[in-house]
Amino acid sequence: MDKKYWVPALEKAHAVTRLVAEEPGQLKLTDLCKRLDISKSSMFSLLQTMEALHWLARDRSDTYTLGMHFGMMGSAFFRQFDLIDAFRKEAPSYMREVNESIQLASLEGNEIVYMAKEAAPSLVQMVSGPGTRLPAHATGLGKMLLSSLDESQLGLLYSEDSLSSLTPFTLRTKQELFRQLAAIRQQGYALDLQEGVMGFNCIAVPVYQSGNKMIAAISFSMPLHNWEEKREQALKLILSLANKLSFSTNAASELE
Fold first, then answer.
1. Rounded distance between C-alpha atoms, residue 231 and residue 143, angstroms
2. CA–centroid distance for 11 within its chain
3. Where is the IclR-ED domain (predicted)?
4. Are 210 and 251 in contact (CB under 8 A)?
5. Cα 109 from Cα 242, distance rounded (Å)
6. 10 Å Cβ neighbour count for 208?
7. How many helices (H) and strands (E) does the chain have?
8. Directed axis angle between helix 40-52 and helix 29-36, to 10°?
9. How far apart are CA 87 and CA 116, in angstroms?
10. Distance CA 58, CA 244 (A)
11. pTM of the entire structure?
């Protein structure tokens, strides 16, 4: 990574977190200062902030342990593997019914990351294997996931008015994107009409976890020549699959 984008405060917070994780309940403020060579004033500010964010917890002896935030994040980290397993179990039958590919993706910043794919037996495929990243605004999956964010969160992700283009059909401005997101919230699904890859359309719907939080999205993708014939069937089936995956994820969460 280019060091000009490095954030020293985050590096210090990371170092504190790792040290506390290695020696929970053993280290006080002064111990952390000595071990990490951080001034007392800087360490005090770091610890105050990390306590407020529930990254750390301080006990009666003024030593530190990891806070509840990391319990929640750890649970979410492992739950994504439950989701991938559920997708791999359920998606094949849905793929065979429409004979089109299904993708599972999550949101990271203003990009989507493909987590899993059930590919149709076709010579023509979108490049959307696990680990592939694409701009969220250029995909149905991404727009579905962005629709779960509020105005302030979206503003942080899209500070500039212009958007990068992957095809002639990709949304070009933040205003166009935000208008589409408002419509997506109302209708409950998102479309990608050759916006990410020329010759392919997609229809995407959300996957939820407990508390009605959107954690991922799934989509059918298909060549343009199949779109009109299969669009309605694909929407019905992808909604059914999303309900199954949401149920599986919530059931796993309740067992933790």
1. 18
2. 23
3. 69-256
4. no
5. 22
6. 18
7. 8, 8
8. 120
9. 8
10. 41
11. 0.68
The amino acid at residue 120 is: A
Contact 64, 47 (CB under 8 A): yes
In the chain, the amino acid numbered 234 is: A
Ordered mean pLDDT values, 10 residues apiece, the chain (256 residues): 72 92 92 94 93 90 88 60 86 95 93 91 67 92 96 90 94 95 96 95 91 89 94 96 78 44
Q: 204-213, pLDDT tens digit by residue?
A: 999 998 667 8
Cα distance between residue 22 and residue 63, in whole Å: 13
What is the dihedral angle through the alpha carbons of 49, 53, 58, 63, rounded to the nearest 10 degrees? -60
Q: State the Cα–Cα distance between residues 143 and 137, nearest whole angstrom.
A: 6
Three-state SS for 39?
coil
Contact 20, 66 (CB under 8 A): yes
* CA atoms of 223 and 132, how far apart (whole Å): 19
CB 214 within 8 Å of CB 145: yes
- Token pair for 215: 């954690």
SS3 63: coil
Cα gap 174→16, rounded to integer Å: 38
Contacts (Cβ under 8 Å, ≥6 apart) of 118:
87, 88, 91, 92, 94, 95, 101, 102
